[in-house]
Amino acid sequence: MKAGMIGLGAMGIGMAKNIATAGYLSGVYNRTAVKAQNLADELNVIAFDRPEELAANVDIVLMCVSADHDVLAVVEKIKTTVRPGTIVVDMSTVSSDTAKQAAAMLAEKQAAFLDAPVSGGVEGAKNGALAMMVGGDPAALAQARPVLETMTRCIMHMGPTGSGQATKAVNQIMGAGINQAVTEALAFAQAQGLPMEKVIEVISGGASGNWFLQHRGATMTRGVFAPGFKVALHHKDLLICRTMAEQIGASTTLIDMTLADYRLLMTKGYGDEDISALYRLKAVDSD
Ligand code: NAP
Which of 79, 168, 236, 282 is an active site residue? Predict the structure, then answer.
């Protein structure tokens, strides 16, 4: 099975490398072409000039781009060349409605679409240890599974098209709460003059331990906020979550609080920093 990867950002680059290591990657495309050329040279695969060319030459198209309109723009293009039977797997975080629109566009060409957002951060993408939540035809997932397994430690079929993204929204709300909790608690620890390495180590071993604390705790308390997962991207996700929550009458307390904090960070020019930059607003000497 020949696979092609569209979108070589913080996540896509690690994903592409793992697909290549397993021998499935035939080519890559990135909007900023130099990134695709550099990676193609490194992995000895093709750097396609256009997504249409990539789609015409592979059995499975994988994509990981920024937001809803980017997914639809890419699908609009690949739709013109995709062959019947091709499976398109979108690993971006977008709305369930976008997933349904993309699936309908590709169905016109008898191509399958799976919404397959992931969790696990850039570390998970690099180490092939992502958790993937999938919506769409189970038969298409079974076919794509060997390629998807090169990037993941867990693949869960959630139901029809859109249910992968609906599950990812759950993850993004939880991520907002965890970010609020870890940044606020560590700022509290630092203000008391506690030894931060020890705080992080001992709490990581107990009931409040979590991935974010372990992977971002030390850096945030040193004022290092390299992405990671950009504030602007989580902000985009939480807007989707808020719309969904309002539709079903669910609580939006954490969502609203975190959106307001992220808006402030973005206004101050920190939108491209990792979401742990929320620490900037919690630190006792915050600017
Ligand atoms: P990123 O580093 O900003 O990369 C975004 C990628 O999408 C870049 O390759 C960019 O191309 C490409 N792109 C954006 N708009 C495009 C368009 N209209 N047409 C073609 N390509 C386009 O973002 P990321 O962190 O890899 O995240 C990608 C997706 O995964 C997002 O939906 C994000 O929410 C989700 N996600 C991220 C994480 C994380 O920890 N970072 C974890 C799970 C899920 P250029 O190089 O030309 O800009």
Answer: 168
Q: What is the number of alpha carbons within 13 Å of residue 10 lying toward its C-beta?
A: 17
Give the CATH fold of the 3-159 domain: Rossmann fold (3.40.50)
Among 1.10.1040.10, 3.90.1150.10, 1.10.443.10, 3.70.10.10, name the CATH number for the domain at 166-282.
1.10.1040.10
200 has a pLDDT exceeding 80: yes
Using the mean position of ligand 1's atoms as its centre, give its distance from the Cα of residue 190 in Å: 33
- pLDDT tens per residue across span 59-94: 999 999 999 999 999 999 999 999 999 999 999 999
- In this prediction the pTM is 0.95
Task: List the one residue out of 172, 186, 174, 169 whose CA is nearest residue 278.
Answer: 186
- Spatial separation of the C-alpha atoms in residues 148 and 220, rounded to whole Å: 32
Q: Which of 17, 38, 48, 65 is the best mutation target for the ligand 1 pocket, counting ligand atoms within 8 Å of the beta carbon and taking the most?
A: 65
pLDDT, one tens digit per residue, over 207-222 is 999 999 999 999 999 9
Q: Which of 5, 31, 53, 127 to mutate to test the pocket of ligand 1 (most atoms within 8 A of CB)?
A: 31
- Helix 211-221, helix 196-204: angle, nearest 10: 180
**Residue 95 CB–ligand 1 contact under 6 Å:** no
Strands 3-6 and 60-63: parallel
